[in-house]
Write a structure and sequence with these properties.
- The protein is of the alpha/beta class.
- It has 2 domains: about 250 residues, Rossmann fold (3-Layer(aba) Sandwich); about 60 residues, no CATH class.
- The chain contains 11 helices and 14 strands.
- Bound molecules: S-adenosylmethionine.
């Protein structure tokens, strides 16, 4: 592992151009050497890790625990997703972890990193996009920031693989396109799986209606304090032109289970509430669809204040009248 003084900034500039500007999936892997991966791991991947932290912390509030003992990190890169999941559930009886990436450099780097950090774990590199052992037993599938790099045939393969999983944890950037792509995946897999999050229901995605065409399903993670206090993160933000305070992501958690989450009539806030003088507009998703609701400060000053400070959590049981949140909504859940 390198340290911040060894970062190859030019490699990061090149990767950034690929991530942001390349419209077509790259034909060949873009990792050229271990230093690329090291530099990525300390920066972009760490930032992705903050999104995983938000998702995993949300799953903990849902009292979700891993069921499978084996993991498959598909499109693993440096395997930040695996590391975050393993560290969040250290007591779980993990047996083995399989890595797949079309870059052998990436899988080797990920394997080395994981073996150093989790020496008890059996970490292997898959020899194909749909590992044979997976076809028979499935497991916990991790997918992170990969969808927009796939050709249509790789995407098909990934969906085929996903169909074998017991549980899928999938995190993507919070852009319009990435979210819309993930919604398409949700609709393809929803018959075979129970949707645990972000949806609070199993109905069709409410963002697919014509009137919601301009919206997308995204959420905001909270970066750790070091993102604002450490000079290297300042340098990273400035050089990559990334506002580190802003950490949007999209995610999907699916599980093959017959236990439906208890029907709660909960809504989830999509994106960030928009604050105006004396009222807030909230895009809210629930079983009946996605709608914009208004909260007048005078109707619930505490909730209004919590929303403004980002402390209100994302899941709520609203009481609605004529598009307005009224009364005293029950305590929010993260
Ligand atoms: C932006 S990186 C994300 C890496 C890692 N999942 C993360 O969250 O940090 C995308 C990864 O997907 C891999 N990838 C792209 N196309 C792929 C394909 N068709 N099959 C497997 N891996 C692919 C790339 O090599 C790269 O490692």
């Amino acid at each position: 592992m390198g340290d911040w003084t060894t970062i190859d900034w030019e490699a990061l500039d090149r990767l950034r151009r690929i991530f942001i500007y390349q419209k077509e999936p790259p034909n060949t892997p873009y990792w050229t050497c271990e230093k690329d991966l090291d530099s990525y791991d300390m920066t972009f991947a760490e930032r992705i890790g903050w999104k995983w932290d938000a998702v995993l912390s949300h799953l903990k509030t849902l009292k979700w625990e891993p069921k499978a003992n084996n993991l498959l990190d598909w499109g693993c890169g440096t395997a930040i997703a695996s590391r975050r999941v393993l560290s969040t559930f250290p007591q779980h009886n993990w047996n083995d972890l399989t890595l797949w990436d079309h870059s052998i450099l990436a899988t080797q780097y990920a394997q080395k990193t994981l073996r150093n950090r989790f020496p008890e774990l059996n970490v292997t590199i898959a020899s194909s996009a749909i590992p044979q052992h997976w076809e028979n037993k499935g497991g916990l599938l991790l997918i992170s920031h990969v969808l927009n790099e796939l050709t249509s045939s790789s995407r098909l393969e990934l969906i085929q693989l996903a169909h074998q999983a017991q549980t899928i944890l999938w995190v993507e950037p919070g852009t319009y396109n990435d979210s819309r792509n993930l919604i398409a995946v949700r609709e393809e897999l929803s018959e075979a799986f129970t949707i645990l999050a972000p949806c609070t229901h199993q109905a069709n995605c409410g963002l697919l209606t014509e009137e919601n065409e301009r919206h997308w399903c995204h959420h905001f993670a909270k970066p750790p304090t070091e993102a604002f206090t450490e000079s290297y993160w300042t340098k990273f933000g400035q050089r990559m032109d990334i506002d580190l305070r802003h950490l949007p992501y999209s995610f999907l958690v699916l599980e093959r289970t017959s236990d439906l989450p208890a029907s709660t009539n909960l809504s989830r806030i999509i994106g960030a509430p928009r604050q105006y003088k004396g009222f807030t507009k909230i895009l809210s998703c629930q079983e009946t669809g996605v709608s914009e609701f208004e909260l007048q400060k005078r109707d619930n000053p505490k909730l209004w204040k919590d929303l403004r400070k980002g402390k209100a959590g994302s899941r709520h049981k609203w009481e609605i009248s004529n598009g307005r949140i009224i009364g005293n909504p029950s305590t929010s859940q993260k």
